[in-house]
Write a structure and sequence with these properties.
alpha/beta; 2 domains; eight-stranded mixed β-sheet; 8 strands
Length: 318
């Protein structure tokens, strides 16, 4: 069994994945020469030729495994597919764009060897566009509110986890995985190491607004009922406000102070309350819809083919 497994979801990275893999090999050779490792590359149905590159590496190198998904399932599902094919004592997750500072890999490994279960790289300055930084900030804020993480926890897509954490995460079979939620329901022994974020080797982020929204909804609906609790309190708040307003109207009627003024404020209140009701109904519908999809056994991912000289025997999806 290899000591380390590197899992990389690949999308539009035909021109960068070879560089990322080469840097992993260079870092392991320089700083962990006695440790065995494998590299699991998951093609998330990328529209470019990255699968051809993965196949070529997997056919010529014993420690590279390629996983080709049947359609685009998203980054988190692609990682779960990779986790199902890795067997290392420690699992390293990173992106395919070259932004993960692999020169800090050994710092993360040394930190996890202190006894932590998961260690994240923390970037003081994120080298992404404003939209993507806003998305990352929102995801972090959502995690703090919904998932109750350890105090001052900092995370990123570059992290190291112990094998038992990954195996426990793989027990989640539903169609909407959210990795931070899966980590936090498995362990609280989490640490982070501050390092420098790099610029992308090429291209731009594949995350659109709708992809980010879908990711936030996964965190909202898969691992927390706090949005439903919030809707209950919001309904109670409006009910109390309405009751107080009714009393005010009755008092004004008694003292003869009723006038025709105030229609604009009434319409504004109707719009606010009506909008809130519709938003909460949509949220409840989202919960119900996801429950329906899970009941119908919608797959978390579908593997089309696997490439590699040394193929794994087990799969997380079984």
């Amino acid at each position: 069994m290899p000591k380390f497994s590197f899992v990389i979801p690949c999308y539009r990275s035909e021109k960068t994945i070879t560089t990322v893999v080469a840097e992993i090999k260079s870092e392991m050779a320089a700083k962990r020469p006695g440790d065995t490792y494998e590299i699991v590359l998951v093609n998330d149905c990328s529209p470019d030729g990255v699968w051809n590159v993965i196949e070529k590496m997997a056919s010529t190198e014993d420690n590279v495994i390629g996983v080709n998904l049947a359609k685009n399932f998203g980054q988190h599902s692609a990682l779960m597919a990779g986790y199902g094919k890795c067997s290392g004592e420690y699992v390293v997750s990173l992106d395919d764009d070259g932004q993960a500072p692999l020169d800090s890999l050994n710092d993360l490994i040394l930190k996890i060897e202190e006894g932590y279960d998961v260690v994240y790289a923390y970037y003081h300055e994120i080298k992404q566009n404003i939209f993507r930084r806003f998305g990352s900030w929102m995801a972090g804020l959502m995690g703090k509110i919904m998932l109750d993480p350890p105090k001052d926890m900092k995370g990123s897509s570059f992290y190291v986890a112990r094998g038992f954490v990954i195996r426990e995460m793989c027990k989640y079979k539903n169609a909407f995985p959210y990795l931070m939620g899966l980590v936090l329901r498995t362990t609280r022994k989490i640490a982070w190491v501050e390092t420098q974020h790099r610029s992308r080797l090429e291209g731009t982020s594949g995350y659109s607004f709708w992809r980010l929204l879908s990711l936030w909804l996964n965190g909202f609906t898969a691992f927390s009922v706090k949005p439903l609790e919030f809707s209950t309190f919001l309904g109670m708040f409006f009910a109390v406000v309405g009751f107080i307003y009714a009393i005010v109207i009755v008092v004004q009627r008694i003292i003869g102070d009723i006038t025709v003024a105030g229609w604009s404020s009434i319409i504004a209140l109707m719009l606010i309350i009506g909008g809130s009701i519709l938003m909460m109904l949509g949220l409840i519908g989202e919960y119900i819809g996801r429950i329906y999809i899970c009941i119908n056994d919608s797959p978390q991912y579908v593997i089309k083919e696997i490439a590699g000289r040394s193929l794994p025997k087990e799969d997380c999806s079984k």
